[in-house]
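Weekly sync, protein design subgroup
Attendees: M.S., D.O., the rotation student, P.L. (late)

Item 1: inverse folding check
M.S. brought a backbone from last month's batch and wanted to see whether the design step gives back something sensible before we order anything. D.O. pointed out we never logged the input encoding, so this time it goes straight into the notes. Structure tokens as presented (94 positions):
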């Protein structure tokens, strides 16, 4: 089998994996909204938390078992994200 075929199969598997995770995420978010009965306006595109009235930098995700995310309305979260990216780039260079 040529390498071209392996690349096509790999891309197809990655797309399939992404679609499975995206569907699972939508199901979990729908279950959460059905449980709470509200749809929060603090979530942009359903994944970015943006609430300038919330003083926290790190907030639980909409589905708390999935971890934490940044409050993108806080300037310090942008600085944290920039520092993290710079740290990863420095590790890559060393």
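Designed sequence read out in the meeting:
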């Amino acid at each position: 089998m040529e390498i071209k075929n392996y690349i096509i199969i790999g891309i197809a598997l990655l797309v399939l994996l992404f679609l499975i995770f995206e569907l699972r995420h939508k199901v979990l978010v729908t279950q959460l909204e059905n449980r709470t009965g509200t749809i929060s306006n603090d979530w942009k595109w359903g994944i970015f938390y943006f609430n300038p009235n919330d003083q926290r930098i790190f907030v639980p995700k909409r589905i708390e078992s999935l971890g934490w995310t940044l409050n993108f309305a806080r300037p310090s979260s942008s600085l944290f994200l920039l520092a993290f990216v710079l740290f990863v780039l420095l590790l890559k260079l060393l």
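Discussion: The chain is about 55% helix and 10% strand. Residues 3-36 form the longest helix (34 residues).
Action: P.L. to compare against the previous round before Friday.
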